[in-house]
TrEMBL record:
It is found in: Endomembrane system. The keyword Transferase does not apply. Residues 139-290 form the P-type ATPase C-terminal domain. The keyword Transport applies. Its EC number is 7.6.2.1. Its cofactor is Mg(2+). PANTHER family: PHOSPHOLIPID-TRANSPORTING ATPASE, PROBABLE PHOSPHOLIPID-TRANSPORTING ATPASE. This is P-type phospholipid transporter. It comes from Panagrolaimus superbus. Keywords: ATP-binding, Lipid transport, Magnesium, Membrane, Metal-binding, Nucleotide-binding, Translocase, Transmembrane, Transmembrane helix, Transport. InterPro entries: ATPase_P-typ_TM_dom_sf, HAD-like_sf, HAD_sf, P_typ_ATPase, P_typ_ATPase_c. The lineage of its organism: Eukaryota, Metazoa, Ecdysozoa, Nematoda, Chromadorea.
Length: 357
């Protein structure tokens, strides 16, 4: 807590807000005037563990002048830290200190007054409270709230959902682009790198926009669990720091899934069923769309376009039972193993949110 209040007031606020608990060992950092005194006080603090630190702005200036890195290390080891009699510049200085020495941690700053603006702008995430002191903080912040207790919902619900949605959306977009690229690469290899594109302009444009836009919108509003559960189990928020939703492992899994599905779709259309070029395009592209949109309402839009694009699809062929059977078989082969693996993972090694949802 960074405040301009005097020491006694700052301690009372910390206790009443729950920042300091009744069992915390509160260590009041001595008023230091030079480097030697700062070194002595820092050594005293270093020998203690699990303490709540209270420090004045004057002492903070001296310590940061000579022992900047030590201060960053020690304040992160404390249970809680209160810096009183801080100027707006000192608040921003502490935020920059944590950003500089505690990578890759992300720093959030919360303030409600004009003297908190520099601190809010210096942090990775600035949160302004629209309070009696004015709107300067809320206007300068990344997020604005009206009550301090809304912070729990901001982090545990909105923050978690935004992170999960961003991870899912980025990986879906990557998979969507990668799978059609691999299909084109396989097609080029099979036909001796002829300068011919498997899917012509309108199909490529529609695939990246109209055909796959609803899954994107669905991912934007997706929730893996209810807001009530997200608030009830704050441990779920801590899982995000492990980066399991978007990591090198998940990237490799998506790449492998794209390679497998692209191979099944392309080789299935080429060798298992038909060698007529227009039929290859119809079968492979329909199987691709079914693979991407198997649970989406966009299928209705695609089904209608099959009947409209006469220059791309053979209408007589796509209305036949043979076309339906061929595309269904390829779709099942490309999707079923992945769904089976997902069900097995859910059954034998569920994630934390799956256990509570």
């Amino acid at each position: 807590m960074l405040t301009g209040d005097k020491l006694e007031t700052a301690i009372c606020i910390a206790k009443s807000s729950g920042l300091f608990s009744k069992t915390d060992n509160i260590h009041v950092f001595g008023n230091v005037q030079n480097r030697k005194e700062a070194h002595t006080e820092l050594n005293i603090l270093r020998r203690k563990s699990n303490v709540a630190l209270v420090m004045t702005g004057t002492s903070l200036d001296i310590c940061l002048q000579y022992y900047e890195e030590d201060v960053a290390e020690l304040i992160c080891q404390c249970v809680a830290v209160v810096c009183c009699r801080c100027s707006p510049e000192q608040k921003a200085q502490i935020v920059n200190l944590l950003i500089r020495y505690k990578k890759p941690a992300r720093v959030a700053a919360i303030g409600d007054g004009g003297n908190d603006v520099s601190m809010i702008q210096a942090a990775h995430v600035g949160i302004g409270i629209d309070a009696r002191e004015g709107k300067q903080a809320s206007l300068a912040a990344d997020f604005s709230i009206t009550q301090f207790h809304h912070i729990c919902r901001l982090f545990l619900v909105h923050g978690r959902f935004c992170y999960k949605r961003s991870c899912a959306l980025s990986q879906f977009v990557m998979h969507r682009s990668l799978i059609i690229t691999i299909i084109q690469a396989i097609f080029s290899c099979v036909f001796y790198f002829a300068s011919v594109s498997l899917y012509q302009g309108i199909l490529m444009a529609a695939y990246a926009t109209a055909y796959t836009m609803l899954p994107v919108f669905a991912l934007v509003v997706d929730q893996d669990l209810s807001s009530a559960n997200a608030l009830t189990y704050p441990e779920l928020y801590k899982e995000l720091s492990k980066g399991r939703s978007l990591s090198f492992k998940t990237l490799c899994l998506w790449i492998l899934a794209s390679i497998y599905q692209a191979g099944v779709i392309m080789y299935g259309a080429l060798f298992a069923f038909d060698l007529d070029m227009i039929h290859i395009v119809a079968i492979s592209f329909t199987a691709l769309i079914l693979t991407e949109l198997i649970m989406g309402i966009s299928l209705l839009f695609y089904a209608g376009s099959l009947l409209i694009l006469d220059d791309v699809f053979d209408r007589q062929f796509i209305l036949s039972w043979m076309f339906i059977l061929k595309t269904s078989a390829i779709t099942v082969i490309s999707c079923l193993p992945l769904y089976i693996l997902k069900l097995l993972q859910h059954r034998f090694s569920p994630s934390t949110y799956e256990k509570v949802s």
